[in-house]
Design goal:
The structure holds 2 protein chains of 2 kinds. By secondary structure, chain A is α+β, with helices and mostly antiparallel strands. Helices cover about 65% and strands about 5% of the residues of chain A. In chain A, strand 1 (about 95) and strand 2 form a beta hairpin. Chain A is elongated. Chain B is an all-alpha fold. In chain B, about 70% of the residues lie in helices and about 0% in strands. Chain B contains 9 helices and no strands. Chain B has helices at about 5-15, 20-40, 40-60, 70-90, 95-100, 110-130, 135-145, 150-155, 160-180. In chain B, helix 3 (about 40-60) packs across helix 4, helix 7 (about 135-145) packs across helix 9 and helix 8 (about 150-155) crosses helix 9 (about 160-180). At the A-B interface, helix 2, helix 4 and helix 6 of A face helix 2, helix 3, helix 6, helix 7 and helix 9 of B.
Chain lengths: ~220, ~190
């Protein structure tokens, strides 16, 4: 009866959750009760065995909940572009591309102004505004804009290539690790089977030896 | 040592979604491991772990700290496991996942040790799986998740004395089963009964 009453204390002691008084009381009981001493030893032994259940390799299951940091930068950039576009639209922004010069205009079509092309081969850009005097934007040639766009596309592709390469390396790494693990397990299994087969063969040979010996003895 | 769970919960409730990622990072493996030990299926463990955190994400706004965050997570995970077990009804087959109960290969271990570890792992897993649900949950939370008795009582929503009774009965049954199977304790190795 007394042993049952100290069972809770035994579990507290077993898992290291007993306070000093409880532990001391249980120790006093242990000193006079061989059954509880055996019980505690058995439970400690069992705990060692239970630790033999290891988890297999775990793969992560949960993706990020918060968007990645660059998401906010991209979102902010998109918002800025949208705002800028809206502001230009409100200001009556207009852009025309013809065979002649590129005409960028603020404040409505009535205020458009254009300059003569610098040469017949190139398409000069002329900016005219009702609010500001015309500015010479010879540096912003169409070719330059095209070059910039091409450059941006090229950089973006390079970034994607890098990301892809990193991802491939990661997959390769994980596959390789998994393969090594699988091979080790297969190897272990084969060795085990091999060992068992060898034992069986040895036993069979030994038995055959006994049988032969016995049959030889019986022969006159 | 990063911020406490409670601080991260408060940050999340204040609008910092990234705080939840930190909580996920901190608890994902533990929760997934506990689910795996209950269901013994890697796919289901990942599936339910994801669902646990999804439920937590949706419910954390209303979480008022009535329990520890981790206890609350374990509660969600256990409820999902129970639902899954009910749907499964009885398990009369051994899945390929169960065959994977073997411990990960230890580079320094000999072949014999590898085989013995795998055998022990499988026997212990099978013995725990055969326990009644209540005892199995108590043993997994105590033995493998390292929760304290009051925490387990909180998770299972029962008094501490009930937790201890379930645990003791479960350990008692396990000891008998493993001894019947000839699993030795002192060396930590497994051996089939002759």
């Amino acid at each position: 009866m007394e042993c049952e009453s100290v069972r809770d204390q035994m579990l507290d002691v077993l898992y290291g959750e007993a306070d000093a008084d409880s532990a001391a009381g249980f120790e006093r009981h242990l000193a006079v009760c061989a059954g509880c001493r055996d019980e505690l030893t058995g439970l400690r032994d069992l705990r060692v065995r239970l630790q033999g259940w290891k988890l297999p390799h775990q793969r992560r299951s949960v993706r990020r909940f918060a968007p990645p940091r660059y998401f906010w930068a991209a979102a902010a950039a998109a918002l800025l572009l949208l705002a800028a576009g809206g502001a230009l639209a409100l200001a009556g922004f207009e852009m025309r591309v013809t065979r002649g010069p590129v005409v960028v205009q603020l404040g409505g079509a009535g205020h458009a102004a254009s300059a003569a092309p610098a040469s017949t081969d190139q398409q000069p850009v002329t900016v005219a505004s009702s609010a500001a005097p015309a500015v010479d934007t010879a540096g912003l040639q169409e070719d330059v804009v095209l070059q910039r766009v091409s450059e941006m596309i090229r950089q973006s592709e390079a970034r994607q290539q890098l990301a892809l390469r990193a991802s491939l390396t990661d997959v390769e790494d994980r596959t390789s690790r998994q393969r090594r693990y699988d091979l080790a397990r297969i190897g272990a299994g084969l060795s085990y089977i091999d060992g068992r087969t060898g034992q069986h063969m040895a036993r069979t040979t030994e038995l055959m030896g006994y049988v032969l010996q016995a049959s030889n003895k019986r022969e006159p | 040592m990063g911020p406490l769970d409670e601080e991260l919960v408060a940050a999340f409730q204040g609008g910092d979604v990234a705080a939840f990622d930190t909580l996920v990072h901190r608890w994902e493996r533990k929760i997934q491991g506990a689910i795996y030990r209950i269901l013994r299926s890697d796919d289901e463990a990942r599936d339910l772990c994801q669902e646990t955190f999804l439920k937590a994400f949706r419910g954390l706004g209303n979480f008022r700290g009535q329990a520890q965050f981790s206890s609350w997570l374990y509660q969600i995970a256990l409820n999902l496991c129970r639902d899954r077990m009910r749907r499964r009804k009885t398990r009369t087959w051994v899945s390929l996942d169960e065959m994977g109960d073997a411990a990960p290969a230890d580079r320094g271990a000999s072949v014999l040790e590898l085989v013995e570890n795998r055998d022990l792992s499988r026997r212990v897993a099978a013995a725990i799986s055969a326990l009644p649900d209540e005892q199995r949950e108590a043993i997994i939370l105590k033995e493998y998740e390292g929760r304290t008795f009051p925490e387990i009582a909180e998770i299972l929503d029962v008094p501490v004395s009930t937790v201890k009774t379930r645990l003791y009965r479960g350990l008692d049954q396990l000891r008998r089963r493993l001894e019947q199977q000839g699993v030795r304790g002192s060396s930590g190795a497994a051996a089939a009964a002759p």
